[in-house]
Amino acid sequence: MNTRYKITRLDKKGNPTLSLEECQSFFAKKSDFEYKDSFGASQDGVHMKIKGDFFMWQLEDVKIPFRFFEGKIYVAVSHPVVLEKTMKIARLLEANYIEG
User: Fold this and answer.
1) Which of 36, 23, 32 is closest to 59 using CA atoms?
2) Rounded CA gap, 55 and 27, in Å?
3) How far is CA 65 from CA 10, 11, 31, 46, 51, in A?
4) What is the dihedral sign for C-alpha 62, 100, 89, 33?
């Protein structure tokens, strides 16, 4: 089972301060990320498509979605290397990463 993490930066009142525009600019400078306005998954012949703001990280032959939603970036961590990347992104954005 994957553990979900969120990357967030809060102001003094506890409001998220990450913006979609800031994240788009940040990830556009990363050659191993690509922006998508939806995420699709297929299993057992069933295809599901979720609309949203996704920054897809290319890890070998797998794409890992980092989803921006309401001032936070969410990612499901399935491997230690994904957690390492999550922690690095949080540091570069001067944000925190929190399980949940």
Assistant:
1) 32
2) 7
3) 22, 26, 15, 19, 12
4) positive
What distance in Å separates the CA atoms of residue 6 and residue 65, rounded to the nearest whole number? 12
Neighbouring-strand partners of residue 26? none
List, in sequence order, every beta strand (DSSP E) within the chain.
3-8, 33-43, 46-59, 62-69, 72-77, 96-99
Give 3-31 pLDDT, tens digit per residue: 999 999 999 999 999 999 999 999 999 99
Place of tokens 């995420």: 39
pLDDT of residue 1: 65
Residue 64, classified by CB atoms within 10 Å of its CB into exposed (0-12), middle (13-18) or buried (19+), is buried
Residue 57 CA to residue 82 CA, distance in Å, equals: 9
For residue range 21-67, list pLDDT tens digits in order: 999 999 999 999 999 999 998 889 899 999 999 999 998 888 999 99
